[in-house]
Each structure stands twice: as structure tokens, then as C-alpha cells.
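Pasting two entries for a bug report.
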Amino acid sequence: MKDLFSLQGRVALVTGGSRGIGRMIATGFLHQGAKVYITARKAQACDATAQELSAIGPCISLPIDVSTLEGARSLVAEFARREPQLDILVNNAGAAWGEAFDTFPEQGWDKVVDLNMKTPFFLTQAFHEMLKKGAKARPAKVINIASIDGISINQWETYSYTASKAGLLHLTKRMALRLAQDNIVVNGIAPGPFPSEMNKEARDHGDAVAHRVPIGRVGTTEDMAGAAIYLASRAGDYVVGETIVVDGGVTFARG
């Protein structure tokens, strides 16, 4: 029981790991003993974050744009040059687009839906063999980062974002059912207001946002890391196809 939440000896990859929620998860994994690879589109930011997090534990930067199939396959190839298997994959990289209904563009749909829903599927598919190798000793893990905006409706006109995150919730269940037979456990996390580049309101106006959160504050690194560590560790081995809401009660308040 004392090692229930340990990630010692495990190798993890976090997409969109240079900032925001991805960085929070990478930080938590490192504190629990994992070797963590982070990837992001901007090489300088990815390299800088990996260097900073290496003060905690081994953190390696693989700056690649995973929004395309070519990028996803390139990431797998780069990772495979360094590791024989993958134990934990966190599909966190995402995008958002807000615009009025009458002018919402096709670009705002394709960019967001491709990265938020298509990429988690095809990146997991591309890593399937390496995840199966990781699953030989104990279950490998896939964690899809969704959003409470896929569960309840926010006040902004983010049509493609809400649709993609709602789709990811159901995709997580479908993937979980298939990959369980390979000893790969798939789950998700639906974050609420966490300070990030994507959620600038929580980042820049945290006190104001906190008034709309039943628990009275925005999320912290520990809040996000705790949920991810639970799902990635032995503690979460029997949780399959679920998406954990980590939002301080916002979803209930909206309802």
C-alpha cells in the first residue's frame, strides 16, 4: 500500500507539456519518480520547461507538432530511439477558438477538432505497440485531457472546443474498451478553471473566477497532478473508461 501512488521506474510522455495543465501533470509525475518526456510545438519553450523540471527528476524535451499524422509518427520515432517502451501517455495538447456563430470559420473548426479529438486517437494508435510493451509487467496507461466544457455549457461561443471535448469523453470510453484487452487502461480528466495560456481568465483574473467556483479558488498544480498521478499509478488500475472532473464544483454550479 505504501507504493500505491508511486511511479518509480515508469516512463511517461505528456503532450503539450511545456506549460499549463501539461506542465502540472509532468511535475507531479516527476515527483512520484517517473521519467518524463514532454512535447510541444514550440521548441524553445519545450526545451526550457524540460530544463527547469529536470531539477525534480529526469525530464526530456521532444519538441514536435503532433497536430498532424506525420507529426505524431515523428514523435513516436523520436521516442523509440530513446526508450524501448512507453508506460504512460498523456494526451494533453489542445487548442480553442472563440467566435460568434455567424462568422465562426471552418479553420476554427478543423484546427480545434483535429488537435483535441483526432490527435489523441491517432497518437495513441501510433504508440500502441510501445504501450503494449509497457503493459507486459503491469497496466500501461493512457490519460486523455478533456474539459468540463464538454460536459456543461460555458458562456463563450467556443463551438468547436466544446464539441471536441464532448467527443473526447465518449472516445475515451470506446478506446478504453478496446485497449483493455491489451492491458492498457484508458481514462480521462476534465479540468475546470486552471491558470493557463488557454484559460487566461483563470490565469489573469483568478480572484474573480474564484467567486464562481464553489470551493472558492482556481485549480493548482497539486490539484491537477493529484488526479493524474492517481490514474497513472497502481491506485487507478481498476478505473477504466472514466473521466474524472477536477473543477472545484463548477460543473454542478453551472447545472
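Entry 2 (this is the one that rendered wrong in the viewer):
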Amino acid sequence: MTTLHIEHAITDFSVWNAAFDRFAEVRWQAGVLGHRVQRPVDDANYVVIELDFDNIDEAKRFLAFLQTNVWTNKQSSPGLAGAPSTRILEPA
């Protein structure tokens, strides 16, 4: 399993989460097998997202989609503050 790990600051969790939920079908179609959304206990304006895929290529394609179609569009990414930090991870 491959994981796309994403971290970024947000301005409002409820606004951000509503936008995240709107992309549920897109995530499924892109091959996301499962996801986790977490926030640091000391920072309500920060999120850590992990999206699980079968393979690295699916994770790379979805990251490219996020970078070109979502994070560059304020309507698609309300609540996003700053640039996300990402990594593609695989089991050691």
C-alpha cells in the first residue's frame, strides 16, 4: 500500500472539511482505498491527511490532480492557507 501524506494550514476546519467531503467521489475514482484526517492537539488550524492507494503511480497521479486542479483554485480549496507539504510513502 502507498500513502499520499499531505499537511497544511487552514483558516476554518468546517469550511475546509466541507470542501474535502465534496471530493469523496473524485477520491474513490482516483483509487483512494481509505483516508485519515487528523489535527494536531495544539493547532486547530492545521490538518494532516493520509490517502491510501494500491500503488505509487495512483498516488502520483492524484497528487498531480490536487496540485493542478484543486490547490490552485480558491473555489475548490476554501479554507486552505498556504502551500501544502506532501510526501508519497510506502511501507518500510
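Dev reply: Rendering is fixed now. As a check, the viewer should reflect this: Strands lie at 2-10, 34-38, 46-53, 80-89.
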